[in-house]
Amino acid sequence: MSVAVEAPPAANGASSSSPQYPDQYYYVDQILDRPGPRTDEAFSAGDPVKSFLREQCKILVIGAGGLGCEILANLALMGFKDIHVIDMDTIDISNLNRQFLFRPKDVGQPKATVAAEFIMKRVPGVKVTPYYGKIQDKDDDYYMQFNIVICGLDSVEARRWINATLVNLVDPENPESLKPLIDGGTEGFKGQSRVIFPTISSCYECSLDMLNKPTAFPICTIANTPRLPEHCIEWASVLEWPKVHADKKMDTDDPEHISWLYKVASKRAKEFKIEGVTWQLTQGVVKNIIPAIASTNAIIAASCCNEAFKIATTAAPFLNNYWMLIGTDGVYSYTFEHEKKSDCPVCGGETMDVEVGKGWTIERLIEWLTENQKIQIKKPSLSLGTKPIYFQAPPQLEESTRPNLEKKVHELIPEGGEVTVTASTLPFTLTLRLAFV
Ligand SMILES: [Zn+2]
What we know:
Elements: H1 26-32, H2 47-56, E1 58-62, H3 66-78, E2 82-87, H4 111-122, E3 127-132, H5 140-144, E4 148-152, H6 156-169, E5 181-187, E6 190-196, H7 219-224, H8 229-245, H9 255-271, H10 279-287, H11 294-313, E7 322-326, E8 332-336, E9 352-356, H12 362-371, E10 381-384, E11 387-390, H13 395-401, H14 409-412, E12 418-422, E13 430-436
Parallel strand pairs: 1-2, 1-4, 2-3, 4-5, 9-13
Antiparallel strand pairs: 5-6, 6-7, 7-8, 10-11, 10-12, 12-13
Helix pairs in contact: 3-11, 8-9, 8-10, 9-10
The structure holds zinc ion.
GO molecular function, one term: ATP binding
GO cellular component, one term: cytoplasm
Domain E2 binding: 354-437
């Protein structure tokens, strides 16, 4: 059986003997030229929406790696014409299998620049402005110029930074200051995309406790009842390496060290009839590498760009507000509304109440802050009002506050006292109200 499909009209000027290519935006126009059952009330079909998408909308892509390459290509093909991209990395040969805007000749070049040039060459009429550097190099004025920001990052730190920056940018008097943030992330066969309207919907910081902790295997399983190839590798690296090499530190970048671990783990696996220990897996386990999967990147990037398109055109309601994809056992996906937290240090405005052990020292409190899933702050500095409790930097202040580390928390901070926590990596401060238990 054959299905008749109406051929798209040829682009202007195409003669009957040349191939019949449709206009570049023919298929996108099918969505924009008429309202559908789910279009927003604000949607005005035809030229106004096309003109906004193609002439006015300025979109920023953060990251030009696995997700970023896909995102840039999708946006360009959808009709976004003023695209900016930031990435601080250069191209490595190991990127080429999935970061498809790059070729062997590009190795060593900045990702942002090469990606921008590739897109402009391939999709006529699109302008991509690259910036090779860190997102932290740019100020509020820079971020104010965009209508939408999309992140395709592999760093929690960078996401926290851009999230807090966009939340701080919001001025209730100026609706233009509200920049929708679309965040995509992948980890092996899993991924998620989400839409954040800073100060209005749940922000990145609100969901910090959803991040996976790195997998740790119980030591008794590793030592006595291994079932997985990973258990054998952990046995070799955690138990056997220190036994055999005493003080010599394992270097996970040294191929000879990995080969030694591989040999020892393979022997162990054979004893327990476990299959699957390979050199690559050994390296992956000890370096904590989760393989990047090109198809996961493609799905998540498609979802992010779909949301950008819907926000820019109002052609359909956008995601509210979190979509997750799990491809490890079959394919499962789920959409839910992640709720805003009233005590979110970035968008909540309320002080976070925390319970602290009576006997805790300041050092213990700092350790707890770095381990806490909801806070996850590296190298925090603490103060009570204007009084420094402990500062990580500058060196003189660190030295003068260091004796406080051994003191009990309740000696320095009263019950109900509000402690200000800062860290150089985060563009916000956290206020904790302490209760002793
Ligand atoms: Zn928040």
